[in-house]
Amino acid sequence: MNPFSLFAVVAVACSAFLWPAGTPFAGGTPSASGAASPLEPGYVAGGRYIGAGACKNCHNGPAKGDMYDHWTKTKHAQAFASLASDKAKEVGKKHGVDEPQKSEKCLKCHVTAYGLPPAEVKNTLKQADGVQCESCHGPGEAHQKKRFAEASKPGAQPSPITADETHSARSMDNCNKCHNQDSPTFQPFCLVERMKDVEHLDPRKKRTAEELAKLRETCAPDCAHCKETKAKAAADGDKKDGEKKDGGGGK
Ligand code: HEC
Ligand code: HEC
Ligand code: HEC
Ligand code: HEC
Fold it and tell me: Which residue has its alpha carbon closest to ligand 3 atom 7?
């Protein structure tokens, strides 16, 4: 691949999503209504938030893609529990919070669907389960109902996922609802790096190496780390092309 075509691929991957005008619920209480985009809290087309335990029925174990089991091993599943740690108390103290597990100032990012009206959250959602599937995938009740109905028909194949059911975008919009500078322990966020720890692709979906590479290089336009990595990849590509022109491999 010549350096220009590599650059083109990178440019497309980075412009595949655009920054929203305002960061979704950057620090504020999620707005309860009027949210038009599935990436905004308060989006109710998918029904209510039902909690990770409800997703487990169909998305646990290797035969069903292992997403649930994978999630339990990520820090997201511990995000509520960790608010009881000594470190959390220390952080809380600096922000005038005595009990982080009881404060809106912390819970709004450390649990799913915090602060939404009861009508939008089913009581199967457990705060103690921390940052759950629906923080990234949107409320799942409609999806759950549709898929249970489908599964009850013998021999039926799953129909294609629709946008009002659930969404799964690997994009900064999905993460910076919480990974933003309102977090007292904010770390600069590189989507490429951070996705490595939370990725739970379905092994049953046979993706080609190119499809995987394209998915995994999705990054944020202002991520310095991604820019460096890409510049390096482009330079390495350059070198390889050069070697080929020289006859490649020969001493
Ligand atoms: C009754 C079974 C069932 C339940 C419960 C269920 N799902 Fe699914 N889900 C499916 C099926 C079937 C598919 C489509 C086939 C597949 O990808 O496995 C699917 C696909 C998905 C996808 C892939 C979407 C895409 O674009 O390909 C996501 C994301 C998802 N589910 C999230 C969730 C979340 C989050 C929950 C809990 C809130 C949940 N599911 C609960 C059955 C279920
Ligand atoms: C704007 C969202 C947001 C808010 C508000 C927030 N957090 Fe967090 N918190 C995060 C994210 C995201 C992380 C993961 C670290 C990172 O990448 O920034 C995190 C990580 C942490 C950690 C682990 C840090 C480590 O280095 O191990 C602690 C402890 C913590 N938060 C405590 C709190 C406390 C206490 C409050 C309330 C005073 C709070 N957080 C409010 C988003 C938030
Ligand atoms: C931190 C955000 C986040 C959390 C939490 C999360 N997911 Fe995902 N999930 C994603 C993203 C992003 C994708 C899109 C695929 C990718 O980019 O790796 C995805 C993809 C999926 C898919 C489709 C897999 C494929 O190969 O296409 C399913 C099914 C799924 N998630 C289910 C779940 C379930 C069930 C949970 C909770 C147990 C969960 N997810 C928790 C972000 C998340
Ligand atoms: C609802 C808020 C929320 C959303 C949305 C969210 N996260 Fe997180 N994330 C957190 C919190 C809170 C922590 C810290 C958990 C802890 O240690 O208490 C965290 C921790 C992490 C960690 C482990 C700690 C670290 O600093 O590396 C990774 C990796 C991560 N998130 C990646 C992602 C990615 C990628 C997305 C988007 C696809 C995402 N998160 C979306 C709240 C969120």
Answer: 133
Q: Ligand 2 in contact with 31 (CB < 6 A)?
A: no
Cα 240 to Cα 3, 7, 202, 233, 235, distances in angstroms: 10, 15, 33, 10, 9
Question: Does residue 8 belong to any structural domain of this protein?
Answer: no
Q: Are 6 and 231 in contact (CB under 8 A)?
A: no
Asked whether residue 41 is domain-assigned, the answer is yes
Residue 131 forms part of a structural domain = yes
Q: State how many domains the chain has.
A: 1
Question: Would the pLDDT of 99 be above 80?
Answer: yes
Pocket test for ligand 3, best of 134, 176, 200, 212 (most atoms within 8 A of CB): 200
Residue in this structure with the two tokens 């799953």, named with its chain if needed: 158
pTM as predicted: 0.86
Structural domain containing residue 72 = 22-155+162-186
105 CA from centroid of ligand 1 (Å)? 31
Residue 54 beta carbon below 6 angstroms from any ligand 1 atom: yes
* pLDDT per position as a tens digit, 38-92: 555 555 568 999 999 999 999 999 999 999 999 999 999 999 999 999 999 999 9
| pLDDT tens readout for residues 201-234 | 999 999 999 999 999 988 877 788 888 877 777 7
Ligand 4 nearest-atom number relative to CA 175: 37
